Amino acid sequence: MMQMPTAPSKRANIALWIAQGLVAALFLMAGVMKFVMPVAEMTKGTPFSGTFMHFIGVCEVLGALGLLLPGITGRYRGLTSLAATGLLIIMIGATVVTATSPKPSQAVMPFVVGILCAVIAYARRGDARRASSTPAPVSIA
């Protein structure tokens, strides 16, 4: 039988919330910028179209919301790990694209953000199982 992941300690939970807040702020800012910037400026120096960059922007904004809203509302908490995993996939792509660019040293930033996403995804992986394993409240009325 598979053992259910245990809840993180209070300190680890605080550290995870700080990491989630910082990563969410970063992705929210990056995602919004993909809609504010002119397409010609946004795609300059990249092999990607404006439509693809807008798609990535939508994914970044939704991922940022997915890092925060399930924990804040207490509903669908398993989406936090899923959002972090999706953002990790984006960061893997960003790291590869940046590493193959003329300035490969700039790949450090997306790599570090990807590591943070992986830590969040791993640490929050049991939230959905823990939430579903608690019995539902009994209504007397």
User: Helix/strand/pairing class, anyone?
Assistant: mainly alpha
Largest sheet: none
Following the backbone from N to C, one meets helices and strands in this order, namely HHHHHH
| Percent helix | over 70%
Shape: globular
Indicate the radius of gyration in whole angstroms.
Answer: 18 Å
Low-confidence spans: none
Count, helices? 6
The average pLDDT value, as a whole number, equals 88
Content of β-strand: under 5%
Query: Structurally, how many domains make up the residues?
Result: 1
Alpha carbon gap, first and last residue: 37 Å
State the total count of DSSP E strands.
0
In short:
By secondary structure, this protein is mainly alpha-helical.
Task: Walk me through what this model shows.
It contains six helices and no strands. It is an all-alpha fold. It has one domain. Helix 1 packs across helix 5. The longest helix has 27 residues. The mean pLDDT is 88.
Sum up the structure in keywords:
globular; 141 residues
Any chance you could write out the topology, listing elements then pairs?
Elements: H1 10-36, H2 39-43, H3 50-73, H4 78-99, H5 108-123, H6 127-133
Helix pairs in contact: 1-3, 1-5, 3-4, 4-5
